[in-house]
Design brief:
The protein is α+β, with helices and mostly antiparallel strands. Helix content is about 20%, strand content about 40%. The protein contains 4 helices and 8 strands. An 8-stranded antiparallel β-sheet has the order 1-4-5-6-7-8-2-3. The N terminus is likely disordered.
């Protein structure tokens, strides 16, 4: 599961910086790069210090022994207690947001649907990692240039090394701009 964790977290975080009063974006069966280009002018994240928290609401791995499932639940709960802070520089905001929208091209991900309008996002991303299997993340929520609140339902199937070959996970991601970046990281 550790190989998949960054990918799982990227999907909902990929949507975190969309601006609410910007033009509508709608795409179907689009690559990450296509969505990034379509949202380049619609994404207006304010530079500054951003605080993000990911809360794991539930995790279900069919076929996993109860003791192992309990341990995984405890690890996820512990991760939910973590708040990350990131300095978003003006330079970062001015670049195309391809990594923000699910990572680099070639990672096997496609947006079945991506809609962004009026401060609301509704997206379905499907990824087929080189290791096998498939991951599908449905993300909905609201955002502005200074905050976001997203919910993501992720289903993984046919994953090598997982009992039953898959799992489902629900996460909530909240973030907000908390001020200016520390002077040493402003670039």
């Amino acid at each position: 599961m550790s190989r998949l964790t960054p990918l799982i977290l990227l999907c909902p975080l990929a949507l975190a910086a969309c601006g609410g009063s910007e033009p509508a974006v709608k795409a179907e069966n689009a690559s990450i790069d296509q969505v990034a280009k379509a949202t380049q002018d619609a994404v207006k994240m304010q530079p500054g210090q951003w605080q993000t928290q990911i809360k794991f609401v539930s995790v279900d791995v069919p076929g996993m022994p109860k003791a192992q499932a309990d341990m995984m639940g405890q690890q996820m709960a512990k991760m939910s207690e973590t708040t990350a802070e990131t300095c978003v520089t003006p330079e970062m905001v001015s670049k195309p947001p391809s990594e923000m929208f699910g990572g680099k091209a070639g990672n096997g991900c496609t947006y079945e649907k991506f809609e962004l309008a009026g401060g609301k996002v509704d997206a379905v991303m499907t990824c087929k990692p080189q290791t096998g299997g498939e991951m599908k993340a449905t993300t909905t929520g609201t955002m502005s240039s200074t905050s976001y609140e997203l919910a993501s339902d992720t289903t993984m199937s046919g994953m090598p090394g997982m009992p039953g070959g898959g799992m489902t996970m629900k996460t909530q991601i909240t973030g907000k701009r908390v001020g200016d970046c520390p002077a040493a990281t402003k670039g």
